[in-house]
Amino acid sequence: MNIIIKTAEQIEGIRQSSKLAGEILVYIADFVKEGVSTGYLDQLIHNYTISHGAIPATLNYSGFPKSCCISPNDVICHGIPSEDVILKKGDILNIDITTILNGYFGDTSKMFIVGEASENAVKLVNATKHCLNLGIQQVRPGNYLGNIGYAISRYAISQGFTVVYEYCGHGVGIEFHEDPQVDHAARKNSGPILKPGMIFTIEPMINEGKPRVKVDETDGWTARTVDNKLSAQFEHTVLVTDTGYEVLTDVSDEYSS
Ligand code: MF3
Ligand code: CO
Ligand code: CO
């Protein structure tokens, strides 16, 4: 395992790219509504990314065909935006944006709700957001990386939900996916010790039913729940600072340490 400790210059570059990724999620919010296709949302995101001097990192990444991932309802992650997927009332969906700006990567995602969703869908979305927050609160120099996943899984299970363990967070910034792997279910005080200058994502995927994933055999990407129950995800890119954390993809000033 080679966890890159980023230089001040690299941190500034990743900060700018992450900020743009966060701004894209703010921009797209107004367009997420009943009757709109996920393919149309992808086009808007593609154009916004390019017009702000960046490149969508997912486009052609290992053959991925679109400029973001959009994962509705039972899709856990890596949903391919399509003109054939039309949003309807009560849908919950994750939009995942990764930008490359001046060579630096920023990666963030959040859930959207179309109109009003079922009580359990709302509970799942809120619990998943809280899981991300609990993970972020574990980020400080000297703490174990595993305590992020420990905090996340303990809370998810307490709410009657399950944690997807087949996909993880990851180091990010110089490349799309770097070391370390950030597990969202982990044992207390396990894994490497956090150090200032590390940058990684925390991106818990939380399921209403079984935790297992099945990948669509036709497109090779779309990861669904095995029982077709709901899944939710939120993601931020986080820097370990001298005293705690900085959430690089947060553009709402929601986090301060
Ligand atoms: N943005 C996703 C992540 O959080 C990765 C998407 S890779 C793709 O790591 F190929 F599916 F786009
Ligand atoms: Co990620
Ligand atoms: Co992502």
Structure in words:
With 257 residues, this protein is of the alpha+beta class. The protein has a single domain (8-247), classed as Creatinase/methionine aminopeptidase superfamily (Creatine Amidinohydrolase). The protein contains four helices and 15 strands. The strands form five sheets. Strands 1, 2, 4 and 5 form a four-stranded antiparallel beta sheet that branches. It has a three-stranded antiparallel beta sheet with strand order 3-12-11, with no helix packed on it. It is globular. It starts with 7 loop residues before the first helix and ends in a 10-residue tail after the last strand. The model has no long low-confidence stretch (mean pLDDT 98). The structure holds 2-amino-4-trifluoromethylsulfanyl-butyric acid and cobalt (II) ion (2 copies). 2-amino-4-trifluoromethylsulfanyl-butyric acid is lined by residues 58, 61-62, 64, 69, 78, 96, 98, 107, 201, 203, 221, 235.
Explain the layout of strands and helices.
Elements: H1 8-29, H2 38-51, E1 55-56, E2 69-72, E3 75-77, E4 92-101, E5 104-113, H3 119-136, H4 146-158, E6 162-163, E7 169-171, E8 178-182, E9 199-202, E10 205-207, E11 213-215, E12 223-225, E13 231-233, E14 236-240, E15 245-247
Antiparallel strand pairs: 1-4, 2-4, 3-12, 4-5, 6-10, 7-8, 9-14, 10-13, 11-12, 14-15
The chain binds 2-amino-4-trifluoromethylsulfanyl-butyric acid and cobalt (II) ion (2 copies).
The site of one cobalt (II) ion has 5 residues, from loops.
